[in-house]
Amino acid sequence: MDAYDGGSNARRQPGAPSEPGDAPEPEGAEGALTPGEPAAPSQPREESSAPDREPADVSSAAPDPYAEPTDTRPSDPAAIRRAAAPAPPEAESAPAPHPYDGPHPPTGVAALSLRYQIGVALALAVVAVAVCVHIGMVFLHVAPQNTVTKQHGRAVDDWVYPEFEQNWKLFAPNPLQQDIAVQVRARIRSADGGSRTTGWYDLSAQDGRAIDGNLLPSHTQQNELRRSWDLFVATHDAENRPVGLRGTLSETYLRRIVALRLERDDATARGDVLVSVQVRSRTTNVPPPKWSEEKVSVQPVYRELPWWAVTAGDTEGSAR
Description:
By secondary structure, the chain is an alpha+beta fold. It is built from 7 helices and 6 strands. The chain has helices at about 75-85, 115-140, 145-160, 205-210, 220-235, 245-265, 315-320, and strands at about 180-190, 195, 200, 275-285, 300-305, 310. Strands 1, 2, 3, 4, 5 and 6 form a 6-stranded antiparallel beta sheet that branches. Helix 2 crosses helix 3 (about 145-160), helix 4 runs antiparallel to helix 5 and helix 5 packs antiparallel against helix 6. The longest helix has 29 residues, at about 115-140.
């Protein structure tokens, strides 16, 4: 509604004639005039003793709640279209370059020259072929007998033994129930020309004492003597005669192990010479548990091998 409309609720300028129905001014109000009374002269305002104040900022005055809102939109249709139209592409600011948008320097193998890249590729190819061959050989070793193992069984055994031998005795339905100890004695020629025979040295018991209480026992203490005896038994018949080339190799391997162990145990004194050794096994059945009705013999069974002459290659000095 216009502020200058003549309605009952419209504001009036000062000095405007009153309309019928307006509320009369209260009598005795300051500045009110009675009909026919001259206006009183205005009294001069007393100057305030307060310090001079800065004039109020008109712009910070509170807006008039009765003022009509001002329309700031352009009335020209062309101006409206220009304001609504999108800005031209050249007016838009170019985006900042991304830190990873630039070219990256090559890394890894790609950073090498062509000659070194070819060398790395060949090395990886050789390693891959070796791994595949090893996995295939081990698979053929543990797999049931087939046409390939019948024709190339010797090549498979030469690849696997003795470093990569595999067996499944731990997971067999009936695991080993025997305690096998390897023992050795020796003939020694003393410095004065005499000869004597030592007692039996229980090498397996020595390994057992070294392992007992050891959280990290060595591979030698656990498997060297045991695996050498297993290899000897597997490559010899009941008369202790070697079967094939591996039988002779297993005999030499076992003889060197026991000769070195005797020297380390100070079986020979200064000036004595180790002439020959004899190895035997002592096999004892493991007693069954108390709740089992199985009956087994607990008497040990011995298997004595013939005397082996000790050569210069079997001693500690030759091993060094």
